[in-house]
Each structure stands twice: as structure tokens, then as C-alpha cells.
Amino acid sequence: MSDSVKTRTRGAxxxxxxxxxxxxxxxxxxxxxxxxxxxxxxxxxxxxxxYYYFKTKDALVQAALAEHSGYLxxxxxxxxxxxxxLDRLRALVDIWVGQRDVAxxxxxxxxxxxxxxxxxxxxGMDLEAGKVIRLLLDWVERQFRELGLPEPDNLALALVxxxxxxxxxxxxxRDPEIMAREGSRLIRWLDSLPDDGTGRRSP
Length: 203
Hints:
Radius of gyration: 19 Å
Number of helices: 10
Structural class: mainly alpha
Strand content: under 5%
């Protein structure tokens, strides 16, 4: 491998480290409390090097949103390997519940970021956060549509809204068991939807 290729590879690795660190730190500390130095420290990258990849903190916020989008694409890609839409939706709820301790401490990564960005004087990035949530809604809607259920868009809003609500309450009350209880309720709701074993709604 040539020196130029090695340099590009190292640069790409640092950029990925910074994106992942931005997603973590912004989730844990919020946008206003987080500094570029905080993100650099978490990534293990010298502060001066950060500016080579991201010129401003806003650029790092955008990178964090891109990281959330990438995680969601990877997650739904794995869920799509499951045989039926109901299996996929159940597994999604299980994943949410599995993250209950983090949610109780910091809230939903994308939801909390969207709310915080909406309150900033500088506009625009709240819409970017909304796009990440829209990706999740669209994926959930496709599952309900595959089941042949009426108003799949409303069902998707109900499921994702329930997730946001239980994350908010778990965070506000610092009680991860809220996620567990509400997750069980959502699973029961999904299990009440008819399934003929092929992923389609029974007639």
C-alpha cells in the first residue's frame, strides 16, 4: 500500500471516529453543552486535527445526524432479513427496550437532538434531524403496508410516537422500566395483528 493510500485511509478512519464520537457526545451532553474539544477527546483525536475534517461545531452536528442515519440504515437492513413484517416490528421494539438504560439516562438520540435543534436561533438542522425520524417512519410504514393493514402511515405514527413517548418519560423519570412496560404493551399490540405466517394479513 502506497503512502498516499495509507494517509487517505487514516484520514477516513479519523473522520469516522469523529462522526461516531459526535453522535455519542451530543446525545449525552446536548448541542449547547458540547464543545469541539469534547468530541475530539472522545474520538481520541487532537483538537487541532478536528478542523481538518469539520470546520465548525455545526458541521459536527450534521456529521452526528449522518451517523444516526447510517446506524438506522444498518439496523433496518438487518431487520429486513427477518421473514415477516411482524417479526421485523417485534424485533425493532425489542431493540428499543434493550436500549432502555441509555434512553432513561439520555433520551432518544435523534428525538432529543431534533427538539434541541428546533430551539436554536440558527434554523435548518432541525429539519435534518426530522429527516432521520422520517426514515424510521417510512420503514415502519412499509412493514404495516406489507401486512395489508389499512392506514399504514397512521399505524407507523402510532408505533414510532409510542417509542418517542416512552423514551421521553423514561428519561424524565430516570426509570428504564417504563421502556420495558411500554415495550411489552407494544408487542402485545403487534401480536394482536393477524398474521398468516407469510407476512400478509389474514383475510
